């Protein structure tokens, strides 16, 4: 059965007109995977919201379908974004789908090869900036002010509107709100969107956000000039949705904490070889944080369940995967040699 496009599924909750074009790749409806081994480790039912199952392999598609549909309806001829990778891939794909020009500005040498390949193959103009993401975002904001081009980063309100639908799906799948939501935090648009979605449904799970230690401005309480982490998708030093995210953590009685690159990579490997879910490193920050810091406790009681958001697919960053995976076993073209290689 063909999945219902996200906009059609939730049109009554999205700020689009009835006759607006729908630019879709059948995004959304991603799996919520129960993990017994994670449940045992955290002491409560634990689920993985695997956003890597979206068309371009990340949660960005949820917001991009709404943002690009609005851009198309408003007569835009092109869309642009700054990106550490996932937004670039999604922007390029949806621009191609809409018949619009796409341009992405990425930090030079700081984008995973899988994401770069996607943006290029979808026909976007890719510009590698000699600077970091925060500098790239400043420049695209200025470009959008000077030229008739739609900026589709998470500062675009239509992006947040699309991304909030993940909260709707979580509640629908569970039949109720989870006790807590653990989520990686980079530019802070996704945690802002989840909170908006939950509040529209009248529920309020505890939000537990995790940043990488080398890129943890919300934890430090100040911007990080030169953010560094293996988790490229959250390598951001000055989140665009800083205030909204902190408001969400406060209102949900949650908090934001940091995890090391080692903890992120350990969780990344553990999810793949124990749980069977291959996500990109930044995605694993949600699980790494839960394992490192434990379940959040509110007024003396831990939540009765937790959903960990896995924001992107592991194939987004094949270089990291191959560098951390066991080596391939070479073998002679002989039955007994293959038996030894497989069973010894």
Describe the structure using short key phrases.
42% helix; 14% strand; alpha/beta; Rossmann fold; 2 domains; four-stranded parallel β-sheet; 344 residues
Mind explaining what this structure looks like?
With 344 residues, this protein is of the alpha/beta class. It has two domains: 6-58 and 158-324, Rossmann fold (3-Layer(aba) Sandwich); 60-157, Rossmann fold. Helix content is 42%, strand content 14%. It is built from 15 helices and ten strands. The chain has helices at 6-9, 36-42, 60-73, 86-98, 113-121, 133-146, 157-163, 165-174, 189-200, 217-220, 242-251, 261-275, 285-293, 318-324, 335-343, and strands at residues 32-34, 46-50, 78-82, 101-107, 125-129, 150-151, 180-184, 206-212, 255-259, 306-310. The strands form two sheets. It has a six-stranded mixed sheet. The longest helix is centred in the last third of the chain and has 15 residues, at 261-275.
């Amino acid at each position: 059965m063909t999945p219902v496009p996200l906009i059609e599924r939730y049109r009554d909750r999205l700020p689009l007109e009835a006759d607006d074009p729908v630019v879709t790749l059948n995004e959304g409806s991603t799996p919520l995977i129960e993990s017994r081994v994670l449940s045992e480790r955290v002491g409560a039912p634990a689920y993985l919201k695997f956003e890597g199952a979206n068309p371009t392999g990340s949660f960005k598609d949820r917001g991009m379908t709404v943002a690009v549909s609005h851009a198309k309806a408003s007569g835009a001829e092109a869309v642009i974004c700054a990106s550490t990778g996932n937004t670039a891939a999604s922007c390029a794909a949806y621009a191609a789908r809409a018949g619009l020009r796409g341009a992405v500005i990425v930090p030079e040498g700081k984008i995973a090869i899988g994401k770069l390949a996607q943006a290029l193959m979808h026909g976007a103009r890719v510009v590698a900036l000699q600077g970091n993401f925060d500098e790239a975002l400043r420049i695209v904001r200025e470009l959008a002010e000077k030229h008739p081009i739609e900026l589709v980063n998470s500062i675009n309100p239509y992006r947040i509107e699309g991304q909030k639908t993940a909260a709707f799906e979580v509640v629908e799948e569970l039949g109720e709100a989870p006790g807590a939501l653990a989520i990686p935090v980079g530019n802070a648009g996704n945690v802002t969107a989840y909170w908006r979605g939950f509040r529209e449904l009248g529920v309020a799970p505890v939000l537990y956000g995790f940043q990488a230690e080398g890129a943890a401005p919300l934890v430090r309480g100040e911007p990080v000039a030169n953010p560094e982490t293996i988790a490229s998708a959250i390598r951001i030093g000055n989140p665009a949705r800083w205030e909204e995210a902190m408001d969400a953590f406060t209102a949900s009685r949650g908090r934001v904490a940091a995890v090391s690159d080692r903890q992120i990579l350990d969780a990344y490997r553990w999810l793949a070889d124990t749980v069977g879910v291959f996500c990109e490193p930044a995605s694993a920050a949600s699980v790494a944080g839960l394992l490192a810091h434990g379940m959040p406790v509110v007024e003396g009681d831990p939540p009765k369940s937790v959903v960990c958001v896995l924001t992107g697919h592991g194939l987004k960053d094949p270089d990291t995967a191959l560098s951390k995976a066991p080596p391939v076993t070479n073998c002679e073209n002989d039955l007994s040699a293959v038996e030894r290689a497989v069973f010894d």
